[in-house]
């Protein structure tokens, strides 16, 4: 069952006198007890999409739905919604007030929402986040903690509200390699023990492989490929996904993309990836007879449906029976 959902979501910003289409028609779902990885390079729109799903940005059109109900944007409705959908930020040091103890940091959410049993709630959240015994951490300040411990405090702050979904924005990007595995294992354990769902925003396909059930690959405001993580990352269909995977250490040779980095104020016609596409540049699209469509016809917006999906004329032609 779908828990958190985006339907035909569009988010725009004014930028240098033009409109930046940061999210340009996205369908995405996160099911109950499911971990979905949203991947793509910097500037693709994944953080804006995550902020919109958190209720921090209001879409120009389309809807965010939680538990089947559309998100309302009144102050009261947003307050109730943000208890259910909690952010785990990228930088725990920047998100923790250096003047607040661990106890105060974790207790802040329950106080805002007027939840009973504050001390027990804080202790339980810290324990679930792997900080045991929790009382030992109550009086400590952020500068007295390691990077991994600070990230666990941030996660505990989310858990103290008993949310249904965590939105984790690059949750291990600021951590040492030795600690990253511990935090990923924690997220998997929370899913197993609490039934938590999660949307993990990352540029790291290795992280997506290790933690996610499904993956959605985003480029210039749209999902260009999605499906079960084993299928998408073992046999990627979209040239952009193939290029992202090619930089992993076990890949035989990296794909060097040409053209300019994506600019959401200047989205090209046709397939939005075509100015940088190695398949089009290498003549394979012409050999399949789809090069004209690549340059002039936008692929359809991918539906939020089960199974693998790809928004690519060449991939569709390759799958078609002879």
Automatic annotation (TrEMBL):
Domain ABC transporter: 4-245
GO-annotated molecular function: ATP binding; ATP hydrolysis activity
Protein's name according to its UniProt entry: Peptide/nickel transport system ATP-binding protein
Superkingdom of origin: Bacteria
Pfam families, sorted: ABC_tran, oligo_HPY
Recorded family membership: Belongs to the ABC transporter superfamily.
Biological processes, Gene Ontology terms: peptide transport; transmembrane transport
Keywords: ATP-binding, Nucleotide-binding, Transport
């Amino acid at each position: 069952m779908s828990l958190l959902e985006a339907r035909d979501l569009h988010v725009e910003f004014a930028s240098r006198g033009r409109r930046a289409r940061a999210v340009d028609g996205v369908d995405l779902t996160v099911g109950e007890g499911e971990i979905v990885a949203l991947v793509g390079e910097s500037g693709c729109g994944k953080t804006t999409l995550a902020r919109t799903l958190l209720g921090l940005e209001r879409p120009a059109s389309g809807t965010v739905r939680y538990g089947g109900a559309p998100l309302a944007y009144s102050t009261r409705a947003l307050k109730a919604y943000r208890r259910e959908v909690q952010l785990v930020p990228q930088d725990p040091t920047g998100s923790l007030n250096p003047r607040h103890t661990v106890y105060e940091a974790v207790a802040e959410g329950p106080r805002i929402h007027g939840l009973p049993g504050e001390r027990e709630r804080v202790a339980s959240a810290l324990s679930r986040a792997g900080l045991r015994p929790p009382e030992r951490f109550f009086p400590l300040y952020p500068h007295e903690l390691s990077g991994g411990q600070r990230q666990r405090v941030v996660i505990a702050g989310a858990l103290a509200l008993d949310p249904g979904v965590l939105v984790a924005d690059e949750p291990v990007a600021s951590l040492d390699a030795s600690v990253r595995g511990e935090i990923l294992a924690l997220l998997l354990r929370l899913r197993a023990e609490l039934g938590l769902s999660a949307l993990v925003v990352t540029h790291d396909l290795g992280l997506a492989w290790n933690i996610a059930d499904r993956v959605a690959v985003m480029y210039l405001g749209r999902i260009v490929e999605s499906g079960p993580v084993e299928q998408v990352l073992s046999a990627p269909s979209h040239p952009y996904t193939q290029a992202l995977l090619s930089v992993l250490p076990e890949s035989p040779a990296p794909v060097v993309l040409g053209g300019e980095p994506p600019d959401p104020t200047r989205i090209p016609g046709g397939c939005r990836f075509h100015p940088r596409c190695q398949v089009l540049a290498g003549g394979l699209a012409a050999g399949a007879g789809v090069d004209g469509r690549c340059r002039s016809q936008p692929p359809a917006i991918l539906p939020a449906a089960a199974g693998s999906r790809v928004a690519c004329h060449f991939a569709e032609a390759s799958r078609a029976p002879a």
